[in-house]
């Protein structure tokens, strides 16, 4: 993505991650038979980076929703991966055990800044996490777009209105583009095209209700 993208990622991380900060949660693969626990696939917190599509972060699909990548609210069958347990899958008595996705959440942030490392993510309008007997909902509040040289943004208000802002052309003015329920398709949020430049979404910001 170039130097500009790297700077945006570093700046966002510095703003959102405080000293001594702990993750809100983590996704990892585990074996229900022997208790094996793999390395973290995704760290959940105020700042996180999606590297690939799917809840297993394995690029299983060419395109994927941000919501699906978080792995929240999957069924038991959907949590089962194709990865065999390295500890007990070789045992004849245990058979070929597959690792399953475990989502461990110890707290939910009020704001999440999600960096998109690849151009393969559909931007979900909301993210829902089922906690106890109620749903915790994060709504899309902003998107930053870049082309390696310049950044622009879309801001989404609570009533669903989408505002475009470019410090070079619109300066301090935001231009109303429409409403979330009226966008033509899910690809529309992935890019923005003004003038001669077509910029890709590289950062999505979600706010908790």
Compact description:
By secondary structure, the protein is mainly beta. The chain is built from 2 helices and 15 strands. The protein has one domain (3-208).
Describe, in plain words, how this protein is organized in 3D:
There is one protein chain. Helix content is 9%, strand content 44%. The chain has 209 residues and is mostly beta strands. It has one domain (3-208). The strands form three sheets. Strands 3, 7, 9, 10, 11, 12, 13, 14 and 15 form a nine-stranded mixed sheet that branches. Strands 2-1-6-5 form a four-stranded antiparallel sheet, with no helix packed on it. Mean pLDDT is 86; it is low at 1-6.
Question: What's the layout of helices and strands?
Answer:
Layout: H1 3-16, E1 25-30, E2 37-44, E3 47-50, E4 64-65, H2 66-70, E5 80-84, E6 98-105, E7 111-116, E8 121-122, E9 126-131, E10 134-146, E11 151-156, E12 161-165, E13 175-179, E14 191-194, E15 197-208
Parallel strand pairs: 3-7, 4-8
Antiparallel strand pairs: 1-2, 1-6, 5-6, 7-15, 9-10, 10-11, 10-15, 11-12, 12-13, 14-15
């Amino acid at each position: 993505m170039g130097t500009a993208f790297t700077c945006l990622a570093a700046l966002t991380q510095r703003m959102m991650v405080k000293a001594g900060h702990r993750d809100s949660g983590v996704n990892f693969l585990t074996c229900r038979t022997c208790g094996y626990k793999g390395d973290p696939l995704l760290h959940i917190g105020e700042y996180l980076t999606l590297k690939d599509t799917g809840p297993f972060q394995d690029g299983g699909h060419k395109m994927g929703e941000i919501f699906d990548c978080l792995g929240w609210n999957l069924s038991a069958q959907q949590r089962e991966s194709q990865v065999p347990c390295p500890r007990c899958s070789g045992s004849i008595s245990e058979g070929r055990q597959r690792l399953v996705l475990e989502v461990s959440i110890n707290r939910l942030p009020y704001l999440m800044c999600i960096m998109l490392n690849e151009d393969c993510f559909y931007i979900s309008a909301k993210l829902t996490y089922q906690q106890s007997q109620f749903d915790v909902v994060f709504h899309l509040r902003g998107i930053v777009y870049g082309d390696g040289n310049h950044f622009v943004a879309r801001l989404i208000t609570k009533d669903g209105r989408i505002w475009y802002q470019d410090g070079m052309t619109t300066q301090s003015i935001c231009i109303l583009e429409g409403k979330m329920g009226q966008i033509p398709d899910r690809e529309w949020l992935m890019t923005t095209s003004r003038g001669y430049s077509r910029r890709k979404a590289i950062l999505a910001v979600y706010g908790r209700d």
